[in-house]
Design brief:
heterodimer; A: mainly alpha; elongated; B: Leucine-rich Repeat Variant; 35 helices; 0% strand; cilium biogenesis/degradation (chain B); Sperm-associated antigen 6 (chain B); ARM-type_fold (chain B); cilium (chain B)
Chain lengths: 394, 484
């Protein structure tokens, strides 16, 4: 009981003290709480910071390693490139050295080769001289030919003159004008006249016509109606000597004369001596002169038609089949089909391949194939490859 | 017939001849038709007004229509009319083409009679001669293969006309020339160069040169037809036109590339051309001179080849003795091309004493402008390489200032290295002349003069400077003798 009394007495103060202690502790509690919080926050902050630092360190290590790896890779690449460039430069430099030597050599030997140039110029001048000589010879030859042609022409002219003037020849009775008795020797024209044969009348040039109409009409006047001898008439109508020769056997007297002496002017003098008649050959020519129509008449009026006919005839020769080509089958309805010879034989077609030796060893006489003794013809293997490309259509 | 044309030379409206002849063309009798056509042809041939009258009176369609039907005399006469009308001017030729004459003329080219072919080819030639469109029209009508066939015919006159027709077709443009070559004409033309007839050779060479002038490929094709060295014999022909055309052909071939020029040189063409130049006069020389210029222009080796073939004396002869300015200009140009490569070449030109001639041509007032320009260029080109001092000295005296500059420059290049030349320079009075030249200080001329003066000791330079005697006399005047 005492304690109870003491407690009861103290109860108010206990309560006060209780309250007082609680309330006194409260601020301490708050303070301590704050302090604890502070301590804790600071400590946690330290913890976190150290953790972060740790993380930082680790991350730095990782990044360091990774970046160094990348850097090394990059470095390798750069080194490769630099190496490559250096080698290329080296090769270039070496190649330039080689090329320099070679180009200098080539230029000295071939391009600006002085000795070669001298040789070349010497060859050119030799060619020039050769060409000049050849051209001079050519010109000389041409001149010579021309002179010869001129001389020949002069000869012919003089000969022709002599033949035209041959009647001025001196005879036994009468000296000709070139053989005057007061001269020591006869004029050279005299000798010329003696050599020349007399001219007979020139026959006009006749065009050879091959159209049948005219000669049919003139058949009765052709020279075949003359009495013939063994000798055939000469081919060229112009040769008067030949014609005289061919016609003279008709007259026996001339035959004898021909046998003894040379022809030409002797025959003429004989004929002159025969009397007041004209030369028989001339007379016959004049009487039976063949017709020489003008060019205009010689062309038939329907020449174009004739030419067309001829063209048609030639084309007809080339035709295989004369029947006109009829396109539609209705035209051929009533015709019996005639098979071609190839289809209508009783033997069948031979296989194409069997006919060749190379495919058909059964045909060989001995068991070996032919061997090529002569080489094949190489000409055509080069065809088209030897010609220059100039002028080909692009 | 000719007296008839003279009397009727009055304006067509009054005479009415054309309408009369036109009705006669439709006559029944063939001889009258032919004679009427011949009359029309002679009228049109005489004068281009009459040819226009023929065209205006609508005669051409009638001619063309009956050209296809009639006999060969009529065809010849009608082709003669077409030729006579077509030769005067391009408009008349166009009128002929417009009325469809080309097809019938080409059909006439296939005729059997060589006279008809000749007349048709002549008409086609005169039509194609004017310009490229008309030539193209002739080619489109299919004339070229037939003309090539005509060339192979035996008649000389036909060959001549066909060759001249091909030449006139090919001359306008490279495509037309290519058409002619594609028809295989070149081989036949090349074969016929050996034909002795002069007119035929003239036409053939003209045709080949017209073909080869357009491009390198065409020139190569002509060369492949093996015309060298046959064409060189044509240079010795008696006929002037043959020589001219042969040198034209060689010129057209040589001008394209150095390889072709080399080919010509290797075949000895240069010597032949030089001889040809020597034997001709006047305009016939011109292609030969130009050919030498073209060959020398390509490279210095070729120029040296021209020099050793004795081309330079011949060219200088041409330069001095030809009266015509254009030939002189060509010779001056050729000499410039030869001498411009190296000092050797310039020396070869200068030795023949052509430089004074060139200078006089440049300075003379009578020369044409073209001649002056070309001789000036030639002088400049040669002078820039010339180290042959005896030839340069006359230039010091009478050259104009712009050339003097180059001359003095050349002296200043040569004199420092050659003592003999220095001595010669002094003794011949060149140093004196150089001192007398007035040049602005600082100009190129003054530099050259200074470099020349620096080759000599100072006393000599002062001795030759102008007015030296005056200064000496002044010194005498001002000299006080020592009183003994």
């Amino acid at each position: 009981m005492a304690t109870l009394a003491r407690l009861q007495a103290r109860s108010s103060t206990v309560g006060n003290q209780y309250y007082f202690r609680n309330s006194v502790v409260d601020p301490f509690r708050k303070k301590e709480n704050d302090a604890a919080v502070k301590i804790q926050s600071w400590f946690r902050g330290c913890q976190v910071r150290s953790y972060i630092r740790h993380l930082n360190r680790i991350v730095t290590i990782i990044q360091k390693w990774w970046r160094s790896f990348l850097g090394r890779k990059q470095y390798q690449l750069t080194v490769q490139v630099a190496y490559y460039t250096m080698m290329m430069n080296l090769y270039n430099a070496m190649a330039v050295r080689i090329q320099r030597r070679w180009r200098g050599y080539r230029v000295r030997k071939y391009l600006f080769n002085y000795y070669y140039l001298k040789e070349y110029l010497k060859v050119v001048s030799e060619t020039n001289d050769a060409i000049r000589k050849a051209l001079e010879e050519f010109a000389e030859m041409k001149e010579r030919e021309e002179k010869k042609a001129n001389l020949e022409r002069e000869e012919k002219k003089r000969d022709y003159q002599a033949r035209k003037m041959h009647y001025l020849l001196s005879t036994k009775q009468i000296p000709g004008i070139y053989n005057s008795p007061f001269r020591k020797e006869p004029d050279p024209w005299e000798l010329q006249l003696q050599k020349a044969k007399p001219l007979t009348h020139r026959r006009p040039k006749v065009k050879q016509k091959d159209s049948t109409s005219l000669t049919d009409w003139l058949a009765c006047t052709s020279t075949r109606s003359f009495p013939r001898s063994e000798i055939l008439p000469p081919i060229n109508r112009k040769q008067c000597q030949g014609w005289a020769q061919w016609l003279t056997p008709v007259i026996p007297a001339l035959w004898e004369a021909k046998a003894d002496r040379s022809q030409g002017q002797e025959i003429k003098t004989i004929l002159d001596n025969m009397g007041p008649f004209r030369d028989i050959t001339e007379v016959l020519e004049q009487r039976y002169r063949p017709l020489e129509p003008t060019l205009r008449v010689a062309e038939p009026i329907d020449e174009l038609k004739l030419a067309r006919e001829e063209l048609r005839r030639e084309e007809w020769l080339q035709n295989v089949n004369d029947n006109m080509f009829l396109p539609f089958s209705s035209y051929h309805k009533n015709e019996k089909y005639i098979p071609s010879m190839h289809l209508s034989s009783k033997y069948g077609p031979v296989s194409y391949k069997e006919q060749f030796r190379s495919e058909n060893p059964k045909k060989w006489i001995c068991d070996k194939d032919f061997q090529t003794v002569l080489p094949s013809f190489e000409l055509f293997s080069k065809y088209g490859k030897l010609y220059s490309k100039a002028g080909q259509i692009v | 017939m000719h007296s008839l044309t003279m009397d009727l030379w009055i304006p067509n409206g009054q005479a009415g001849v054309m309408s009369l002849l036109r009705t006669l063309l439709l006559d029944v009798v063939p001889t009258i038709q032919q004679t009427a056509a011949l009359a029309l042809g002679r009228l049109a041939n005489y004068n281009d007004d009459l040819a226009e009258a023929v065209v205006k009176c609508d005669i051409l369609p009638q001619l063309v229509y009956s050209l296809a039907e009639q006999n060969r005399f009529y065809k010849k006469a009608a082709a003669f009319v077409l030729r006579a009308v077509g030769k005067h001017s391009p408009q008349l030729a166009q009128a002929i083409v417009d009325c469809g004459a080309l097809d019938t003329l080409v059909i006439c080219l296939e005729d059997f009679d060589p006279g008809v072919k000749e007349a048709a080819a002549w008409a086609l030639r005169y039509i194609a001669r004017h310009n490229a469109e008309l030539s193209q029209a002739v080619v489109d009508a299919g004339a070229v293969p037939l003309l090539v066939l005509c060339i192979q015919e035996p008649e000389i006159a036909l060959k001549r006309i066909a060759a001249s027709a091909l030449s006139d077709i090919a001359k306008h443009s490279p495509e037309l020339a290519q058409t002619v070559v594609d028809a295989g004409a070149v081989a036949h033309l090349a074969q016929m160069i050996l034909n002795p007839d002069a007119k035929l050779k003239h036409q053939i060479l003209s045709a080949l040169s017209q073909v080869s002038k357009h491009s390198v490929d065409l020139a190569e094709m002509v060369v492949e037809a093996e015309i060298f060295p046959v064409v060189l014999t044509c240079l010795k022909d008696k006929d002037e036109y043959v020589k001219k055309n042969a040198s034209t052909l060689i010129r057209e071939i040589a001008k394209h590339t150095p390889e072709l020029s080399q080919l010509v040189v290797n075949a000895g063409g240069v010597a032949a051309v030089i001889d040809c130049i020597g034997s001709c006069k006047g305009n016939t020389r011109l292609p030969g001179i130009m050919m030498l210029g073209y060959v020398a222009a390509h490279s210095e080796n070729l120029a040296m080849a021209v020099i050793i073939s004795k081309g330079v004396p011949q060219l200088s002869v041409c330069l001095s003795e030809e009266p015509e300015d254009h030939i002189k200009a060509a010779a001056a140009w050729a000499l410039g091309q030869i001498g411009r490569h190296t000092p050797e070449h310039a020396r070869a030109v200068a030795v023949t004493n052509t430089l004074p001639v060139l200078l006089s041509l440049y300075m003379s007032t009578e020369s044409s402008e073209d001649l002056q320009v070309k001789s000036k260029k030639a002088i400049k080109n040669i002078l820039q390489k010339c180290t042959y001092l005896p030839a340069l000295e006359p230039f010091l005296y009478d050259a104009p200032p712009n050339i003097l500059k180059h001359v003095v420059g050349q002296f200043s290049k040569v004199l420092p290295h050659d003592s003999k030349a220095r001595r010669l320079f002094v003794t011949s009075g060149g140093l004196k002349k150089v001192q007398e030249i007035k040049a602005e200080p600082g100009s190129l001329l003054q530099e050259y003069i200074n470099s020349i003066n620096s080759c000599y000791p100072e006393e000599i330079v002062r001795y030759y400077s102008p007015g030296y005697s005056d200064t000496l006399l002044q010194r005498v005047d001002s000299y006080q003798p020592l009183n003994n």
